[in-house]
């Protein structure tokens, strides 16, 4: 199943649950059995009083999770031309339901986002109450390069980034390092790749019977202080002003055209410190710029700038709250998986790139418990 679970007992009998994605050769890409098994175990841990905290991590040095395992989905689509294959409907419904449940998990949930954290991996990371990145972290929503829109709640978390950065990252699939993720509010803590054992040992030593939030914060803060000298330089926030200027256009078609021009920018004109050099750096850091996906860009442009919320029938039960580092964000339930935005966009003229059935199934899967 490429997934395994462990429980460790700390002081006073408190237990730490650890879920490990274990498909190293595929960069821990998610399959439907993995998603279902993870959902079942998280539900069980949520009901178990002695399990006080959960850590979600990935095996191997290269990636926490590089997204969904799309090869089988592509094969299923080819076997069912013109319709939504049962595997695709089941996969996306289960994935989005899992993401939503992570956003509303009732116990502290830490996610160790080392290496590649792409697509579906971002969905897992962004749902955690404490999102940890490391010097090796490379975060991205690269769906545009395969003709898909950024899903797993990206129309919510990308729309909340400063200026036009969310639209830029969605249209380009550009990678973010750990500093970018911290700066843009897509991660909570920066730790070294070698500090995971220290984190686990620290969690087992906490007194989970009182002042748990304060103790957890102190542990993470102390570990982060050791790691901060290795925090990489920011890539995207320093370029926000230029990116805002390039994307200060009337609609997403113009934004797509403006960004596409960066790909053709001549390298011979580059001089360090010049405007041309900044354009080239931006193009080099945005791999999706070379992908010709106008329909996917249109859907993204409809969802991200406005942070489209779910349609009323897809809202979660009232009273559900989203945890984030010891706080409650009451906007989260309605927006954490803004998949109705995808559904609305699919009906709004995307040129048939995304059948309504796919958008609809995904939306329902994201919110119906």
Description:
The protein has 369 residues and is of the alpha/beta class. It is built from 16 helices and eleven strands. The chain has one domain: Alpha-Beta Complex (2-enoyl-CoA Hydratase, Chain A, domain 1), CATH 3.90.226.10. The strands form three sheets. Strands 1-2-3-5-7-9 form a six-stranded mixed sheet, with helices on both faces.
Structural class: alpha/beta
Q: In CATH, what is the class? A: Alpha Beta
The unreliable regions are 267-272, 307-322, 324-369
Q: Number of folding domains?
A: 1
Discrete helix count = 16
Topology order in helix (H) and strand (E) letters: EEHEEHHEEHEEHHHEHHHHHHEEHHH
Helix content: 40-55%
DSSP strand count: 11
Describe the global form.
globular
CATH architecture heading = Alpha-Beta Complex
Compute the CA-based radius of gyration.
20 Å
CATH topology: 2-enoyl-CoA Hydratase, Chain A, domain 1
Q: Order of strands across the biggest sheet?
A: 1-2-3-5-7-9
The CATH superfamily appears as 2-enoyl-CoA Hydratase, Chain A, domain 1
Distance between the termini: 24 Å
Largest sheet: 6 strands, mixed
Strand content: 5-15%
Q: Mean pLDDT, nearest integer? A: 78
